[in-house]
Structures are given as structure tokens and as C-alpha cells.
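ESCALATION

Customer reports they have been waiting on this structure for their group meeting. Please prioritize. Original submission:
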Amino acid sequence: MEIQQFGTWQRFKDGDLIIDYGKYIRMMPIVIKGTIKVYRLDEKGNEILLYYLSSSESCSMAYSCCVEAKKSEIKAIAEDNVELIAIPHVKLDEWLCVYPSWKNYIMRSFNERFIELLKSIESIAFHKLDERLISYLKEKQRLSGSSVNKASHYLIADELST
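Update from on-call: job pushed to the front of the queue and completed.
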């Protein structure tokens, strides 16, 4: 398949920067192993956690920046050891027109990220902090497969935007 032919296998360690604000994105990551945190910066310089990416998932924002040849409005950081396939930007549009399965994958990815963003907004607007914390911890457990969370209180508060 062309993904194997044109994609580049990349590895990142916990805390490594994968995509940074203001940089041109020349690839779209597809996560093979591990978890990636995706952040956005507001006009005051505050970061907010948008969503996590895990196995078989991709970043819709990276896709959008690649296709439109614009600078990144997100930052992506490895949550743990991450392995991904970097799809070169020159193939994204081409495959969309040629492979219906690729088109379905991209559309499903956009839909999943959109639903996650709606859930985040709903959580911030309508749920108490204790409910948000429980939800956050359950999601971390689901992603890591472990009931042990090594995050500091500061990191948890930061990710919950409190």
C-alpha cells in the first residue's frame, strides 16, 4: 500500500514535541502506538488541551494545515513513547481523490475530533470540576491501560484548564 511506500516511520519519547505552533506542517501523523496530546494557544498565551490521539488516530488540524499550506495553530506532544507514520503533505489530497477508504478515514477523523471538542466545551460549560476530574482520570486510564496516573497536580489542573 502507498502508506508504507510514502509514509515515514517516526518515534518520539514522552514529552517530545511533534508539532509546534507557527511552524509549517509537512506531514500528517497516524498514531501506531502511544498517545499524543494536542493543544491550542489562545490570544493571551494560555494553552488548552484539545484532545488526545491514540492508536490508528490522526490529527485533523495537522491535515488541514498540510492541505492549506498554512502554519500550525496547534502543538502536539508525546504523552508517552509514540510511534507514528508521517504521511507527506503531497499525498493527502491525491489519496482523497483516489482512495475512498482514505476519504472515509479522513472524514471519520474530522468527525471524531469535532465530537471530542464538543464534549470538552460541554464539560467546561456544564460540569462541576469534580465531575471533570473523574472523567479526565477515566480517560487517562483508558488511554494508558493503567490505573496508575503519574501526572502532577499542576499538569492535571493545566489540562483541565483550571
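Sent to customer with the following note: The two ends are 45 Å apart (CA to CA).
Escalation resolved.
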